[in-house]
Design a protein that fits this description.
The protein is of the alpha/beta class. 54% of the residues lie in helices and 11% in strands. It contains 10 helices and 7 strands. The chain has a 7-stranded parallel sheet with strand order 3-2-1-4-5-6-7, sandwiched between helices. Helix 3 runs parallel beside helix 4 and helix 6 packs parallel to helix 7. The longest helix has 43 residues. 36% of the residues are buried.
């Protein structure tokens, strides 16, 4: 009797194992096929984003550095006029001049500190009046100068995380979405993060705000899936920008773990209209896929060790010349 039960259990385990491996393999192959299709298609067929999304203007928040600046440049390269929104007026003017000189498109700048929350959005809405906005890129984000436990955060830092990472996405979407719905065309790109996949120790608030961005994107996309509106969440891993400058692990562009902002945005724009949620580049997609095979507990332990390493790195005395 026990021998028969043992065989039955073994048979069930074998079937479950085969099904899991089959699902894992099919998921990987489907991802590779989708990536290759987008990579090849983008080289064979040039997309007209103005015609595709019904507006001449693209609005990018956090547009003076990193991913935001690269979105502004690549959308300008594709013939879109650019609205740059960021905190520092001098940086905005510099990026505006670069884009005008290199791509010859119209530009408009709006200086706004997203950490100030609700009061800034009336001014932003007024600055966008009269512009047919085809694409909105909600890129602005805040990570902070270091990793730390929640109780070590100040109240000011907590509100900065919420205002910059959460409120900005919702408020900017509220401003721009009505005209897209009226045209029945438009694209909203929300920059989430690789670490939205799991609660992350020593980045508790940041990871929580980023999963908000992903969930918000998915829900709004579903609500308006028959309205001609594209909503996409980008979940990149580490990219060497000011946001990740607190550790030397993330400062070298082009490495396997840290593709450049240009590489990330190029891949992300190829996926626009094809993927609702993506990490962007093939290496970040692979990293996400592999970590998704682990339990939340295992991922949190990995990031806990990473935080310990970064903490020791930042505690080391700086070398002076």
């Amino acid at each position: 009797m026990f021998e028969g039960n043992g065989c039955c259990v073994l048979w069930v385990c074998t079937v479950v194992g085969v099904l899991y491996v089959t699902k894992w393999t099919l998921s990987l192959l489907l991802g590779l096929f989708t990536y290759l299709r987008m990579a090849v298609g983008s080289r064979l067929w040039k997309r007209n984003l103005v015609a595709e999304y019904g507006g001449k203007w693209a609005v990018i928040t956090g547009s003076t550095d990193g991913i935001g600046k690269e979105y502004a440049r690549q959308l300008a390269q594709k013939g879109m006029n650019i609205v740059l929104i960021s905190r520092t007026l001098e940086k905005l003017k510099k990026v505006e001049e670069e884009i005008k000189k290199e791509f010859g498109v119209e530009t408009h700048i709006i200086a706004a500190d997203f950490s100030n929350g609700r009061p800034i959005y009336e001014g932003i809405a007024n600055g966008l009046k009269g512009k047919d906005i085809g694409i909105l890129v909600n890129n602005v984000g805040y990570l902070g100068p270091k990793l730390f436990k929640f109780n070590d955060m100040t109240e000011e830092e907590i509100w900065r995380y919420v205002n910059v990472n959460v409120v900005s996405v919702v408020a900017m979407t509220k401003i721009v979405l009505p005209q897209m719905l009226a045209r029945k065309r438009g694209a909203i790109i929300n920059i989430s993060s690789f670490i939205a996949m799991c609660p992350i120790p020593f980045s508790a608030v940041y990871s929580a705000t980023k999963i908000f961005v992903t969930y918000f994107s998915r829900a709004v996309e579903f609500e308006y899936r028959d309205s001609g509106i594209t909503v996409q969440a980008i979940q990149p891993g580490a990219v060497p920008t000011n946001l990740t400058s607190f550790s030397k692990l993330f400062r070298k562009p082009g490495a396997f773990m840290t593709p450049s902002a240009r590489t990330v945005v190029t891949a992300a724009l190829r996926s626009l209209g094809h993927l609702k949620v993506t990490a962007g580049t093939w290496d970040h997609v692979l990293q996400t896929f592999l970590l998704n095979q682990l339990s939340d507990g295992m991922v949190m332990r990995i990031f806990n060790k990473l935080a310990e390493f970064i903490g020791k790195e930042n505690a080391e005395p700086k070398k002076t010349s």
